[in-house]
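Q: I'm writing up a methods section and want to include an example of the input and output format. Could you take the sequence below and give the corresponding predicted structure tokens, formatted cleanly so I can copy it straight into the document?
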Amino acid sequence: MGDMTGEHSNNSEALTRYIKCFEYGSQGNILKLHDETPGESRSWTRHYEYDEPSSIIPSEKKNRLSCTKIKSRIKKYHYNGRDGITGSIIAIPSVPTIEYNY
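A: Here is the clean output for your methods example:
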């Protein structure tokens, strides 16, 4: 994620302590990741949503990541085509196409 102060991340003077908390669902999927810097107003929470149909039982939603959210920023993940059927993510916001050679 990088340093939020604008300092260069390789500057040891810019380092600070922080707290990272994770929340998991009953199936072991990460639901929430919260980062905060004690005593400062720098904090954020990433929410994870799993709303993709199961490849085995399409009427059920299981553990395929659909999107992540930080405030109003939403990043969607895709499972189309041959690779998506097996549960492999085929696109993420920073990488529009992912190909597998198995």
